[in-house]
Amino acid sequence: MPSRRQAAILWSIAIAVIGAVVIWFGAAAIVLAIYGRHAPAAAPWLALAKFASLAWAAAVGWLVTWRRLDEMEQEARKLCWFVGSTAAILLTAPVMLLWLVNGGAFLAQHLRRGTPGAYFAVGWVGLVIAQLLCSLLARVGWWAAKR
Amino acid sequence: MRNRLKALRSERGWSQAELAERLDVSRQSVNAIETGKYDPSLPLAFRIARLFGQPIEAIFEER
Asked: Which residues neighbour A133 within 8 Å (Cβ) at sequence distance 6 or greater?
């Protein structure tokens, strides 16, 4: 049986996920009904619906859940994100420098579409994944120290 | 910081989960405070003191 605090957190996560799905599918259904399945004019509206869905999930899932965490959990997350993000930025810097050798030949070889957008996406996603992984490692360290 | 939280909780026959529920924190937080691995904030320390009806300095003391 979850405690009152756990139940509140689970409830806010459920609202975030269900709301995001409803916004995304609801908006997509309306846009596709108006413009048709393959109409180019639908693309920006679908992108907007996707953004609204993600914004809802982030706002409810992150902000509301954050307020329902207790102070130790908030401190753990702040510290682990700070340590993990800083470590990820430091660790990925040499990788970026290696990729730049020979004008980024390594990246061009491994990316099918060597467009500036693809390079930017790889850089951004790579850093985000590195930050998440390093934060997770920091969290394991916190858990081991405080349990 | 050292504290008498575990002793006070035991006197009342409460489990860590019960105390956590009364303080509106997680059981892990209660455990970490009891074992001295986490120092509570001033607002939480006041809540603990109010719950046990004692001044803060009677519950917490510097090592």
From this structure: A84, A88
